[in-house]
Amino acid sequence: MSALDPDLARRLKRNADGLVCAVVVEHTTSAVLMVAWMDDEALHRTLTTRRATYFSRSKGRLWVKGETSGHTQYVREVRLDCDADTLLVRVEQTGPACHTGTTTCFDTDERLLLADPADV
Amino acid sequence: MSALDPDLARRLKRNADGLVCAVVVEHTTSAVLMVAWMDDEALHRTLTTRRATYFSRSKGRLWVKGETSGHTQYVREVRLDCDADTLLVRVEQTGPACHTGTTTCFDTDERLLLADPADV
Asked: Where, in this chain's numbering, is Mg(2+) bound (chains A, B) (predicted)?
């Protein structure tokens, strides 16, 4: 049983695993850092501690972002989307957000579709 | 069977429903517009037509964003994340991205956590 505010808990639309998607954005640059998942308790802890806390689908438990790496996220704002199944989390990121050491999880060389020639 | 490039198809890590998460960002402002889902065929069509195409979990079929509203998305860039289970899609959005008529799906008054007093 989570301590999440009951009004908020009533509104959340969770997936079959009881999770909502969290899109994490760097507060100053607006760069999309990563996507993770929250259950009710992760959201409750994120809102009350301002330390971004997710539910790890691989580990099957809560994890505070940066708990081992030190690359924590201080949470500035959390918004719920129109469908109540996705959160937009604005954070101040300490160090790289990605476990591979890059600033964001999308900083691979891997662009599936390059920008238009007009952009270059 | 999708026509998606076999190398890319091999690398994608789909959820139990065969989908990957797509975070959609406005090309010029970097605002997060919405989150949607793609199966292989949706991704193939998005990459080859540059018209953002998703898999609707509620309708159980592909949908071209804006097919009824006219609020289409011209795709400028698609990136895959470090885990190969999430796409970052940069688009030029025509009209509001949200079916409620707002610019983004996160433009509710609903902030679960307000920004720090220091921000105001």
From this structure: 81, 83, 85
